[in-house]
């Protein structure tokens, strides 16, 4: 009887400790809004291509009538790509989105008209290296919420004491597939961009030791 009671107490203690650890860990992270397309202006100047000068570019606009089915969305970025403009291009934000916190993941609602193409996220790392992170194939119709891991792809830790390094989100890159229907018009929309972040840790002289602020 005593042994049984002690076992119950031990189980309750372990369960309580585990629950506390989960709550503490989840309390580190918070969700922040990176871009809602309500305060920024976008036009053809935000589009770039490496093709010859005079290549037709997509039509870019901000729409309050075509938004993702998410709470609070008032405006989305819409790209209409006519068949004669269905070439690779980059879309850059008017001003790069700079994030000083440690990013766990980024979530982006994306609309696709089911085209044979791919969309990537253009990011500048803390080492000023520009990389592309795959977001999604556009082979679907309607809105789809895309979540991409950042913590597993880039080193975000500060390497110098009191130097706050940051990651800059520059924009998107669109790449149509070779077997894309040449007569197809493509429609892409992007809505509120959010991120799950936490405060960065402060490095000590020993790089293997991290101390929370």
From TrEMBL:
Source organism, top-level taxon: Bacteria
Alphabetically ordered keywords of this record: Cell projection, Cilium, Flagellum
UniProt-recorded name of the protein: Flagellar assembly protein FlaA
Organism whose genome encodes this protein: Leptospira yanagawae
Taxonomic lineage of the native organism: Bacteria, Pseudomonadati, Spirochaetota, Spirochaetia, Leptospirales
